[in-house]
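for the record, two folds in this file. i put them one after another cuz i was lazy. first one right below, seq on top, structure tokens after. the second one comes after a little note so u can tell where it starts
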Amino acid sequence: MSTESLDMLIVGAGISGIGVAYHYQKHFPNKTWQIVESRDALGGTWDLFRYPGIRSDSDMYTFGYQFKPWTSNKAISPGEDILEYLNETVREFGIDKNIRFGKRLVSADWDGEAAVWRCGLKDMATGELVTLSSRFLFMCSGYYNYDEGYEPDFPGREAFQGPVIHPQHWPEDVDIAGKRIIIIGSGATAITLAPTLAEGGATVTLLQRSPTYVISRPAEDPLANRLRKFLPASWTHGIVRWKNILMQMFLYQLSRRRPQVVKGLLLKGIRAQLGPDYDVKKHFKPSYNPWDQRICLVPDGDFFKAIRSGGVTMVTDHIDTFTLKGIRLQSGEQLQADIIISATGLKMELMAGVSVSVNQKPIRLSELVNYKGVMVSGLPNFAVSMGYTNASWTLKTDLVGKYVCRLIRYMDKKSFRSVCPVLPEEGLETIPIVDLQAGYIQRALDSLPRQGKTMPWRLHMNYLLDSWALRRVTRDGLQFEPEKKNGSTEPAMSVERISSAK
């Protein structure tokens, strides 16, 4: 068993971990840090998911990094382009030199006496356990279980004679040409898969229990493509990024305040795509309001084109049972299939199943409270990178990475060895951490940290408000411990404000 010591351990070499690593090494070039990644490749979601047509459902000017301009003409980009962008980023900034592949964090215990995290890393090839100590632990492992997706217990599943595929584990050798394929689901994955499979020669039926809001947007950003002819890439990226941030915020706020207006606009757009005779109300009018769940993005209307051409057929009904040759619905209708795809969602898992403890006392995430969307109560020198659910993921993870750098820089200046969010003595009324009705979130709410109703114990889910809230470190809710002197500790000092990290 070997032992190492670091200043910062980042868990996960996906889009969040790479972004955090950029900020950390930029601000602390003399500190020691590593990214540990359980898989043998970087990229997270964009390396794991290999189903046909995988792409971003956010524009790349906001989903990409602020510090790394997106230069492709494709604003809504295929997964392979995003993966290349991430590989290019780690090479350009030398981040790849500090990534340890095939190492999974399985346990993390805060040693209060030494003020370090004792981390147990499992070698995925040999099973060997390596112990590593780190002053700060930054979880960037995403929000879902990488090993398995969510699959309902479908009645009669064993009766179906063909393959049942979950998109999270897409086989390399599946032949779709000429096949009858049923896709179960109505989220972004299903709506991405359907036109791609139809284009590949399959006859596709998209089977949903209830509709989802869908919006069509150009795959390329006209403003970006015009500006790129005259302006440097960084200027173009910045202008289009802010334009899209403001558009995202406007749509979300309008959806929450005037849901009927947004609902009408979305349905009008779908009718324009599918024509007056299509039953838009049955297949595309959900019972919930826009942004109670994420709105699915369709680049250049490809999903609607596939419906118009007959390559994709929508069916809105409930499953009665799988049969030998397909699925029988509760209405009695029989759907024939050679392949069934269960695009039924993710299994949410906030910290990759890591066993967390403080001074050997196990910690349950559900008993903790979020602090500014960055840290959680009771865990010293610990951060979690969680992106937005109502905008591009990376917008929030970028803010989180920069805030932690501000926090650490101040701790170094004042010789603090630890910082921990501490709940007020009078207690705190809490609410669920995510206000989204998506199934994968609702199934996991009881296992997630909660949030308060007021700052600093809540999430804004608003880029401008979060930018303001995270521009400085305040004393509210934080407890600092100075470095030991002569075997003792001094009383924690209060912190009013620090300057921004540039």
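(here's the note) second protein begins now
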Amino acid sequence: MLKFLKILSVFTGTIIGVGIFVLPFVVSKAGFLPVVFYFLLLSIIAIFIHFIYGEVSFGTKELHRLPGYTREYLGRNWEKISILTVVLGLFGALLAYLIVGGEFLHLFLGSQFGGSPIIYTLLFFSFGSYLIFRGIKSISEIELSLLVIFFSIVLLFLIKALPSIDINYFKEINVKFLIFPYGVILFSLWGSAIVPEIKEMVQGDRKMLRKVITTGILISTFTYLLFIFIVFGTSGPNTSKEAISGLSSVLGSNIIRLGFLFGIITCFTSFLTLGLTLKKVFWYDLGLSKNLSWFIASFIPLFLFLLGIRKFIDIIGFTGAIAIGIEGVIIVFLYREFSKKMLSKKMNPLFYILPIFFILGVILEIFYFIWR
């Protein structure tokens, strides 16, 4: 049981990341009911995609990440697309965690110790990159305790905020922003990058892998909706972009400081696991040395941050709809070829519908960013 909880904490800690702080703001724009619909639909799709990716990972002897599996089953041309998609997607995610994690660390410690926000981002980066260098053993040992703290803070938020929640806020729908939630919610539910890592941790237990995937995504969905209920229910149209600071008038400064700690934990756990995954993409699939892979995976997001790329909502939406959308298409095609070669299975109609769904999502997101 303890082994399952540790593995579940790594998977869930990867999924529940910076997206949680954007979601109440998304609801304030699009409305609560459209966001619930997106969660119901995309949770099912995310579980399915993670399942089939897990099957490919289990059925392949070599240690790979997505580009390596793509090369083996789809060929070199698809591998190039896969490398570009995965690397850009993970760089985007790590950059978002750096931006928001550093901001929360500054809000939590800055009033006591002073210093600019960039110093706290560098501090966040230093601890995170060190643990990425150390590897999964160091990460899994702290993930479970961090998640316990995380859920304790959510529960405290709920208790404190419940008397101030206004149900009327949840009735509004804004048709103009109906596309807006798609990319952010897809980003918030996606943990495929960590699936090969989880496969190694379960040590051949397919049933445990499926249980981790299902439980992790359902816990994440429930947590997101609960957090939306707390933040949007109290702040309504005044919901802030990073969710926490807008609660100060309702919860008080001490609870808000706890909220900043909540933000640090959430961003840090995801930064660790995704950073480790990107390191292994360069190491396992591109054949770079272990240390060089760590350096590229860790320092490129920092370099992008220092260049001034810091609009985290745009980064999350774009990464979710486009990079993850293309990754979803690749995983479906990957499983189709894997099934033909290794399992001799007939294709489920879903394998023809899902790529169309993801491509449509990419197109709509591009149009949204152009015409908004």
